[in-house]
């Protein structure tokens, strides 16, 4: 839902407003999606009068207060939550809130989180004065670069591709080394809701598999289907080399588990850069 709200802002910031009720303890968990937000108010744990529900579906040992004209005559306020609740708001005037790791990313020329972590390992004080940042936060930020508009534009840059010499991979056994990438969102959307096309190309003979999905998060299912097709066409999975960029869905724990289970050697084209066309 937060990702959709941010996409709506990217599409029409002049006419988009959102208001969320959020557990205060989860603000840090989703902070990469909440950099443009304002906390209007925080209700202490147990505060009543926040949430309402249909009267006929509630029960209580004491009378419940009517939700009034805002909630509707058939609704009543229910007991407060056992945790603090924050009201999150955003409109076109809401300023950006920098987390420590995002400040480092911006202050150091949009450097990759791995590069920043390496600087920290060398003893460099990279945090903003008066704040602290951990190595874990920097490494987590490498998978959240979609929140950075500059990095998003860089990923869309398409320089002239530099193809390797044609005979570079002739010594490779067919089916032993593949390249994979996704294209999309596709317009118009497919009749089945497909928005992304996944392409797997063999380096030696250019044998190609194509698949479609509605979301990029379906990569693990696409990968499993690709491996089944590889075996069906007489190729081997064990020892297979798969080259991709550094997109999060290609490197997440589910994908890594599939690589390990099938004995796949996963190679990243530029492991220390944000993913972008022909580079990362």
Automatic annotation (TrEMBL):
It comes from the Eukaryota. One of its GO terms (biological process) is DNA integration. Residues 170-280 form the Integrase catalytic domain. GO terms for molecular function: nucleic acid binding. InterPro entries: Integrase_cat-core, RNaseH-like_sf, RNaseH_sf. This is Integrase catalytic domain-containing protein.
């Amino acid at each position: 839902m937060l990702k959709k709200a941010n996409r709506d802002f990217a599409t029409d910031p002049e006419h988009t407003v959102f208001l969320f009720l959020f557990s205060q303890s989860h603000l840090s968990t989703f902070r990469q999606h909440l950099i443009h937000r304002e906390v209007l108010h925080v209700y202490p744990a147990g505060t009543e009068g926040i949430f309402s529900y249909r009267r006929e579906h509630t029960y209580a040992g004491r009378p419940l207060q009517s939700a009034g004209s805002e909630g509707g005559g058939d609704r009543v306020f229910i007991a407060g939550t056992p945790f603090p609740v924050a009201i999150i708001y955003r409109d076109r005037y809401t300023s950006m809130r920098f987390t420590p790791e995002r400040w480092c990313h911006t202050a150091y020329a949009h450097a990759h989180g791995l590069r920043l972590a390496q600087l920290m390992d060398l003893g460099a004080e990279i945090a903003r004065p008066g704040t602290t940042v951990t190595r874990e936060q920097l490494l987590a930020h490498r998978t959240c670069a979609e929140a950075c508009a500059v990095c998003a534009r860089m990923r869309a840059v398409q320089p002239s591709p530099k193809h390797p010499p044609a005979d570079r991979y002739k010594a490779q056994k067919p089916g032993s080394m593949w390249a994979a990438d996704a294209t999309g969102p596709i317009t118009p959307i497919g009749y089945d809701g497909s928005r992304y096309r996944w392409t797997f190309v063999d380096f030696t003979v250019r044998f190609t598999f194509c698949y479609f999905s509605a979301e990029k998060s379906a990569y693990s299912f696409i990968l499993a289907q690709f491996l089944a097709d590889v075996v069906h066409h007489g190729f081997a999975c064990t020892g297979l080399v798969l080259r991709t960029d550094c997109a999060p869905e290609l490197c997440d724990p589910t994908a890594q588990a599939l690589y390990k289970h099938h004995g796949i050697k996963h190679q990243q084209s530029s492991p220390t850069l944000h993913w972008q066309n022909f580079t990362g």
